[in-house]
Amino acid sequence: MQTLSELRVTNSSRSDTGIYTCSATSDIGADEAVIKLIVQGIPDAPSNVTVMNITSRSFSLHWEVTDNGNSHITGSIVQYQTHSDTEWNGQTSQLIVSSAETVATLRGLTPITSYYVRIIAENSLGKSKPSEVLEVSTEEEAPSGSPTEVHVHSTGAQSMKVMWK
């Protein structure tokens, strides 16, 4: 006669992940089975976002994903925009970072501009909540050429108005 036994784990969380031992004993003997339970979920939001190498048209970001949800990180999404609205919609630009890379460089930016940046991690089960929003300002840059169409107009005995493109 064979007996079927069942163990159900309900309302599990990632903290339930671990090694479990099931022991059975009878008049005939004893046996046990070791079970490795892995509870998976979406990753935690990226944290410890740092900014490096700020120039007039680019900057780099580094971040950490401290809990991958017990599933490999498949990529990250770096979202950035020039307005501080809490809405992240069609005005938002994105850079897709493949695999478990935790470094990205945003290029082709505008000098002397504030960018608002956040990062989302992704695994096979879904996307994390976004990281905290970081404000990053690009640096100034020298003009690309000399002024053109320079015009000077006298505005008084000791003053003048200079205009150029």
Automatic annotation (TrEMBL):
GO terms for biological process: anatomical structure morphogenesis; cell differentiation. Keywords: Repeat. Residues 45-141 form the Fibronectin type-III domain. Residues 130-165 are annotated as: Disordered. Pfam families: fn3 (PF00041), I-set (PF07679). PROSITE patterns: FN3. InterPro entries: FN3_dom, FN3_sf, Ig-like_dom_sf, Ig-like_fold, Ig_I-set, Striated_Muscle_Regulatory. This is Down syndrome cell adhesion molecule. It comes from Araneus ventricosus (Orbweaver spider). The lineage of its organism: Eukaryota, Metazoa, Ecdysozoa, Arthropoda, Chelicerata.
